[in-house]
Amino acid sequence: MTVPLLERYRESLPFDASTRIVTLGEGSTPLVYAERLSARFGVELWLKWEGANPTGSFKDRGMAVAVTMARAQGARGIVCASTGNTAASCAAYAARAGLEAVIVHPRGAVAASKLVQVRAVGARLEEVDGSFTDAFDHALALAEREGFTHVNSTNPYRIEGQKTAAFEIAEQLGAPPDVLALPYGGGGNTKAYARGFLEAGGDLPRFHPAQAERREDTVASAIRIVEPVHRQEVEDAVARSGGAVVTVSEAELARAWRALAHEEGLFCEPASAAGIAAVAQGAAQPGERVVCVVTGHGLKDPEAVERLAELAT
Fold first, then answer.
1. Please, how many CA atoms are within 13 Å of residue 77, restricted to the half-sphere of its CB?
2. Helix 85-97 crosses helix 59-72 at what angle (to 10 degrees)?
3. Nearest CA to 80 among 108, 51, 59?
4. Pair 173, 31: CB distance under 8 Å
5. pLDDT digits (tens, 9 = 90+) for 15-74
6. Measured between alpha carbons, how far is residue 288 from residues 72, 165, 180, 198, 253 in Å?
7. Nearest to 3 by CA among 163, 202, 197, 164
8. What does CATH list as the number for 5-57+157-312?
């Protein structure tokens, strides 16, 4: 039987011996060698398949730790703002822990399938007019008013959980890769990977967070965040690693999404292909070992398939 993620890395996480861990079996996700894309780009390309997590995205790693700590500290409930994946994860882990969950989301900006996940496990949804930033501010106010724990990525325990993906990559490859390419929405995952690789004791890969050119209305709803909460930490990680933030168009995102599906068999949501789009732009040099973080399953946003197919032509 596989040792649960949070038990495996317990000494690197903010738990004591008495902490009861809230888990749904997150982590230990596959690192898949992308043979055809490696040949196309002239690199050794690996895909960290985070869609294999319990609610279908990388968010489960951090949420497991954040909800574990919220329960341990006696929280009445938890609240988050979300463009979708955080919502599904927050709701599921709250249910697992026996806590109430409130999800605040921008009206019309979240894939319907992600809201179905939230409703299925009994969380409360609150819509706000405006952007993710407006939803985030509303969630903060609600947390203070109702005495709930706020579990967006500004919660330090979220980053602690998400850093475990870097631990896994270093173990799976035997060393950090030369390049790490991943989607860039709020920036929390970039911050977490930087922390994880540093704590693992190796060199930082060259970081290439990939953001949508049209942040405010991109087809990649998971990174539809106009003002990244962790912008400074992303800039610091990129500078320290010698990398660069990559900006990708809607057509580039769509072509990367199609390449992952048609050439490697991975059906991901639109935002998850952003790292591949960065590599297609030349983020890696010939022969380098590259890991692209594929952050969420395609069933997170099945309605995007037709839009992506049109954009990719």
1. 17
2. 40
3. 59
4. yes
5. 988 999 999 999 999 999 999 999 999 999 999 999 999 999 999 999 999 999 999 999
6. 43, 20, 11, 20, 22
7. 164
8. 3.40.50.1100
Whole-number Å distance between alpha carbons of 171 and 161: 16
What pLDDT score does 153 carry? Answer: 87
Q: How many CB atoms lie within 10 A of CB 7?
A: 12
Tens digit of pLDDT for each residue in 252-269?
A: 999 999 999 999 999 999
**CA distances, 151 to each of 53, 60, 216, 287 (Å):** 18, 12, 23, 40
Question: Comparing 5-57+157-312 with 59-156, is the CATH topology the same?
Answer: yes
The third-level CATH classification (topology) of the domain covering 59-156 is Rossmann fold (3.40.50)
Contact status, residue 180 vs residue 208, Cβ threshold 8 Å: yes
Model pTM score: 0.93
Q: Are 62 and 196 in contact (CB under 8 A)?
A: no
Separation of alpha carbons 247 and 183, rounded Å: 10
Cross-sheet strand order for the sheet of 31-33: 31-33, 44-49, 289-294, 179-183, 206-212, 246-248
Q: Is 100 exposed, middle or buried (0-12, 13-18, 19+ CB in 10 A)?
A: middle
Sequence ranges of the domains in the chain: 5-57+157-312, 59-156
CA dist., res. 103 & res. 95, Å (int): 13
**Burial level of 160, CB count in 10 A (0-12/13-18/19+)?**
buried
